[in-house]
Amino acid sequence: MKKNRTNGLAIVAALSVALLSGCEAPSLDGLLASHQPSQPTGNTATAKDGTQTNTTEPAQGESPRAKQASLAETIQDVNGVPTVTNPTDLAVVVNKKRALPADYIPPDLVEPDVPFPFDEKVEKRLMRQEAAQALEELFAAAKQDGIELYAVSGYRSYKTQKSLYETYVRTQGAEHAAAYSAVPGKSEHQTGLAMDVSGADAKTRLEESFGEMPEGKWLAEHCAEYGFIIRYLKGKEDTTGYAYEPWHLRYVGKEMAREITAAGLTLEDYLSATATAQK
């Protein structure tokens, strides 16, 4: 795994503005911007500054759901904007109704040692440390099964998302942007826990048809084994707020990913069920 040698603030300051949707949508294929990711661990994640953060993996035999706060417990009003109180949590829910703090930069961004379809050393190469390590393991397993994957877009700062969203509205229209992109502060990419993934035949094309390709099918079947979920499921648009995105992987940890995937749930559904179970 390649450690990021600049701190988060320097990354944002040096960021060259990209032109694409909130999740690298299909119609803006050639306009992908680059960023730089982070590294995972087994029980704790060690950031480049030496600090450690606990993972959300539960004790053996215990459901990770029992460890999680409900959605209502992790939101507060900040100047009229519903803002999450747990931005560093692996289970953080960021969507059109739940924003990250505008100044949030993940503390442990690194670059995973996986193939990218571009050479630029830019921000979207980054993920949080634990997620980056898990992505390396997922890519290695896919390769063993004859599946060639490319990482397309990971971490995205508030500043970059603002530029992307404005560009998408201007070029694709507000309605299309609302379906595929996120307003600044409400993109999962800012968490450092998401990565858009493509196959060798479509290195920068992110389309719904990816879900029917060998690469997309392999991811749907195996991503939970490495702690990832397909974040935006088909038929769950009313819950997630986004159209089906079979290319968008979100890291939540192995146990939670397995439970969510086995039940066919979204992250919102899973944590809403947490609140019900705790009553």
Walk me through what this model shows:
The structure is a single chain. The protein is of the alpha+beta class. The chain has a single domain (69-271), classed as Muramoyl-pentapeptide Carboxypeptidase, domain 2. Helix content is 29%, strand content 16%. It has 8 helices and 11 strands. It has helices spanning 8-14, 129-144, 158-172, 174-180, 214-222, 237-240, 254-263, 267-278, and strands spanning 2-3, 44-46, 52-54, 75-78, 81-84, 109-111, 127-128, 149-153, 194-199, 228-232, 245-251. A 4-stranded antiparallel β-sheet has the order 8-9-11-10. The protein has a 3-stranded antiparallel β-sheet with strand order 1-6-7. The protein has a two-stranded antiparallel ribbon with strand order 2-3. A hairpin with a 5-residue loop joins strand 2 (44-46) and strand 3. The longest helix has 16 residues, at 129-144. The termini are far apart.
Radius of gyration: 17 Å
Helix content: 25-40%
Low-confidence runs? 5-22, 24-56
Main sheet specs: 4 strands, antiparallel
Cα distance spanning the termini? 42 Å
Count of distinct strands: 11
Tally of separate helices? 8
Strand order of the largest sheet: 8-9-11-10
CATH architecture verdict: 2-Layer Sandwich
Q: Overall pLDDT, averaged? A: 81
User: What name does the CATH topology carry?
Assistant: Muramoyl-pentapeptide Carboxypeptidase, domain 2
Instruction: Determine the structural class based on helices, strands and strand pairing.
Output: alpha+beta
Bulk shape: globular
* CATH top level assignment: Alpha Beta
Number of discrete domains: 1
Task: Please write the string of helix (H) and strand (E) elements.
Answer: EHEEEEEEHEHHEHEHEHH
Proportion of residues in β-strands: 15-25%
Domain D-alanyl-D-alanine carboxypeptidase-like core: 125-254
Region (Disordered): 28-68
Signal peptide: 1-25
Keywords: Carboxypeptidase, Hydrolase, Protease, Signal
